[in-house]
Amino acid sequence: MKISQLSYFITIAQLENMSRAAELLHISQSSLSKTIAALESELETPLFDRTSKQLSLNPAGKRFLKSCDLILQEYQTLKNDIQLMTTGSDTRIKIGSCGSIDRLYPCMAGFKNIHAETEYTLNSYIEDVEYLDINEYDVLIYPAELQYDRFTGFGFSTENYMLAVPTVHSLSKSTAVSLKMLNELDFVFLRHKKSFPEHAYKIYKALTIRGASQSFVDSREMHRQIIASGIAVGFVSENCSDFYRSKNIRLIPLLDHRFSRELRICFKRDKHLTDFGRSFRDFTINYFSLKEIS
């Protein structure tokens, strides 16, 4: 069993789609399929329930995923410890986010101009991680939602939602969508970790939109497929928009400014930060003049 197999398995488990996982990992789909087949052969059990369009974890796969997360955490800690022993420094910065981090890029570039040895690792799918641990990341950019209340962070930015509609939908030719135009539509919403509905659902309920129906899914890939198939429309935050862009989906701005969410940024606990990570934290706080949320 190889560490790369575990990483590939986790990516597929998060996306529930082999082709999109292969695209994200920059390997061919056939190579990825062979890697997972070899892993299942070694474990002597399938890890996924397979259909023609989707993969989903079976009970064995869910149990294995929990162990993979722990193994990779321990492996990363071991690598960091060995690097510190041999070189005396760790120059990697690991960043987790809920989509694109456009606002952070200039800060990252500024820090690298000062510290040319900096190496960045980015994970833009933290909303699909079931057991999110701040100590896995030097920096975490996350939505100000209930499931992240345990993190102490700084106000970072505000992002708007767009309406994702199938290209065959009557609204697909619209340049913008008003609140009134949302009535009598079929909607699909994300329900993270099978308990917390996405923030857009709370806005939808607060504005008393009269949808024709409401469906719920527990993965972003399934959310995208439901929309692309023409079954329903959905709300997509700006930071996650790249995941939805395709020939089958049109993203349309919403005119009501209340369709937005606050993003926050937090850092690994000080006692777990390397000296290099601490330097990046201080640089970022000063760069944006961040103020901690009380």
From TrEMBL:
Phylogenetic placement of the source organism: Bacteria, Bacillati, Bacillota, Clostridia, Lachnospirales
What name appears for this protein in its UniProt entry?
Answer: HTH lysR-type domain-containing protein
Q: Which organism is it from?
A: Blautia pseudococcoides
Query: Can the keyword Transferase be found in this entry's annotation?
Result: no
UniProt cross-references to Gene3D superfamilies, sorted A to Z? 3.40.190.290, Winged helix-like DNA-binding domain superfamily/Winged helix DNA-binding domain
GO MF terms here are: DNA binding; DNA-binding transcription factor activity
Entry-linked SUPFAM superfamilies: Periplasmic binding protein-like II, Winged helix' DNA-binding domain
UniProt domain HTH lysR-type: residue ranges: 1-58
- Which keywords does the record carry? DNA-binding, Transcription, Transcription regulation
The cellular component terms of Gene Ontology attached to this UniProt record, alphabetical and capped at eight, are: protein-DNA complex
Query: Nucleotidyltransferase: is it a keyword of this entry?
Result: no
Similarity section: Belongs to the LysR transcriptional regulatory family.
